[in-house]
Write a structure and sequence with these properties.
Length: about 260
């Protein structure tokens, strides 16, 4: 039995019925290229192989899992893998298009990976869909909308470029070793229209960083630091100055981006 490494955030899903359900979320056809991040011992990988995709490529950080992945590679011609860091690996070296990303993401880097893929350039990105598993509380932050305590920067950055769909929660008891929290499976598809360009995304990131840094306070002070008098009038400052960052919806933040872009 493979010994997991706690410092790598490894929690292996052991229920094959659930891995089958995850594989079925993917819109897989014979032209699909599947990129799996964190295959672990290959339980989900084996289900993805049954889907008859064109190619499956896995990125695994833990070199001690190489024997498990080597067994799969020896049995299936359309599977390959690399031992590498998914945060720094350039997926486009492997696949240019028709990509579906699957991942039981290590808890300690899940948001960093999501942000990496949100920032993909050019846009629309190299992937058509992502099917990803997060800690339940992290998934709730990604899906949150305004007037919700969990709403924040990751909610806004995700919505800026992605359509997000909730699929199901997974009990912590379905993993080995058992983590402290339940997990959630989400899928993402890139927004082809009305998405923010990379420069816009950088502005949005900085804006939300400044405003949510004082999320427990009213937004008036933060907005006055960011906007000039004319811009404050455009956003109807007097009516929103007593609100908090979590009370302002996605479109408000996108409007701020447009105002700042218009300066140049």
């Amino acid at each position: 039995m493979f010994k997991h490494k706690k410092h790598l955030g490894q929690n292996f899903l052991i229920n094959k019925n659930i891995t089958k359900k995850i594989a079925e979320i993917g819109l897989i056809n014979k032209d699909s290229n599947i990129l799996e991040v964190g295959p672990g011992t290959g339980v989900l990988t084996q289900e993805l192989i049954k889907k008859d995709a064109k190619k499956i490529f896995a990125i695994e950080f833990d070199k001690d899992l190489k024997p498990e992945l080597e067994k799969i590679k020896n049995n299936f011609n359309n599977f390959d893998y690399i031992i590498s860091n998914a945060l720094t690996f350039d997926e486009r070296k492997i696949f240019k298009k028709n990509v579906i990303i699957f991942g039981n993401l290590p808890y300690n880097i899940s948001l960093k990976l999501l942000i990496k893929w949100i920032y993909s350039e050019p846009w629309p990105p190299f992937y058509n869909q992502m099917v990803l598993m997060f800690q339940k509380e992290v998934a709730e932050r990604i899906m949150a909308t305004s007037n919700n305590k969990k709403y924040g920067r990751i909610s806004i950055l995700s919505d800026a470029r992605l359509n997000i769909k909730f699929h199901f929660n997974i009990s912590k008891k379905e993993f080995n070793p058992e983590p402290k929290v339940d997990s959630t499976v989400l899928s993402f598809t890139p927004k082809k229209k009305n998405n923010l360009k990379l420069d816009d995304l950088n502005i949005l990131s900085e804006l939300t960083k400044n405003i949510f840094n004082t999320k427990r306070k009213m937004v008036s002070k933060a907005l006055k630091k960011i906007l000039n008098e004319k811009e404050l009038q455009i956003i109807d400052f007097d009516n929103i100055k007593n609100l908090r960052a979590e009370n302002l919806d996605f479109n408000f933040y996108y409007k701020l981006v447009d105002l700042i872009k218009c300066r140049s």
